[in-house]
Amino acid sequence: MKTLASSVFFFVLCSLALCQLKKDRKCLREKVITFPELSTSNWVKLHPNESMDLSAITVCLRFYTELMSADPCFFSLATPSYTKDFSLRWLSVSKKYEMTIHSSQVQFDGLAFNNNQWMSVCATWDAKNGLAQMFVNEVASIKKAVGPKVSFKGDPVITLGQYQTEYDGGFQHTNIFTGFLADVHVHGQTLTTRQIKTYMEAKSKYKLGDYINWHNLMYTTAGSAQVEEKHHVTFYTKEEQQ
């Protein structure tokens, strides 16, 4: 009888846990995350459903900022194997975007970075050939070799607005992002240029992330980072501007 009672109790606890997971998962389609101040205490962590085992990756996001730190980081992913497994940041002195793959860095020149304007960014990398590429507002970079040709594996710590130098933390003041972040999607493959173009144009039917999906997201906020309605700023497509 005790065994049956214990089983029922365990089942109830599991059911409550699953319900809580579903309750915490939210659609942020019409929202932005605001990072309002320069503090290493402000960050947002994204929680995927499963550990990573990806032989290719595409990360897409939109940001809106007035540059305040030297090298602001938009997206940082750490695993037990690599504390800097994948990251995207802007280097203000050299005026280049930097992508980190398995702790190796590559920089992309000639791509736009405009204060107080929405910037759409996608970054791709494939373990088969080790080639990375960036897209900013529909302009593509060349492809560059970076990192060892191995898959992303392990339990990731994914952080927005800070640059991780440790598996879970190690934030630095020079890498703090301030402004708005939105539409963060992580795909377990390299998207085609047509799919990326659809994302850049902010069309409603662009491909949603199969690993991190902004429309079905579990996340944790810290410090003054907060989720707000999109009406604080406006997304414009080319058609709407005409």
Description:
The chain is α+β, with helices and mostly antiparallel strands and 242 residues long. It has one domain: Sandwich (Jelly Rolls). The protein has three helices and 17 strands. It has helices spanning 2-24, 193-200, 238-241, and strands at residues 31-35, 43-46, 52-54, 56-64, 73-78, 86-91, 96-101, 104-108, 119-126, 131-136, 139-140, 144-145, 152-154, 157-160, 179-187, 219-222, 226-229. Strands 1, 4, 9, 10, 11, 12, 15 and 17 form an eight-stranded antiparallel beta sheet that branches. Strands 8-7-6-5-14-2-16 form a seven-stranded antiparallel beta sheet, with no helix packed on it. Strand 9 and strand 10 form a beta hairpin. The longest helix has 23 residues, at 2-24. It starts with a helix and ends with a helix.
Question: What topology emerges from the helices and strands here?
Answer:
Layout: H1 2-24, E1 31-35, E2 43-46, E3 52-54, E4 56-64, E5 73-78, E6 86-91, E7 96-101, E8 104-108, E9 119-126, E10 131-136, E11 139-140, E12 144-145, E13 152-154, E14 157-160, E15 179-187, H2 193-200, E16 219-222, E17 226-229, H3 238-241
Antiparallel strand pairs: 1-15, 1-17, 2-14, 2-16, 3-13, 4-9, 4-15, 5-6, 5-14, 6-7, 7-8, 9-10, 10-11, 10-12
Structural class assignment: alpha+beta
Shape, principal axes of CA atoms: globular
Strand content: 35-45%
Low-pLDDT stretches: 1-23
CATH top level?
Mainly Beta
Order of helices and strands: HEEEEEEEEEEEEEEEHEEH
Q: Sheet bearing the most strands, described?
A: 8 strands, antiparallel
Individual helix count: 3
Percentage of helical residues?
Answer: 10-25%
Number of strands: 17
Write the CATH architecture name.
Answer: Sandwich
Q: Cα distance, first to last residue?
A: 73 Å
The CATH topology is Jelly Rolls
Compute the average pLDDT.
88
The total tally of domains equals 1
Oligomer: single chain
Radius of gyration over alpha carbons? 19 Å
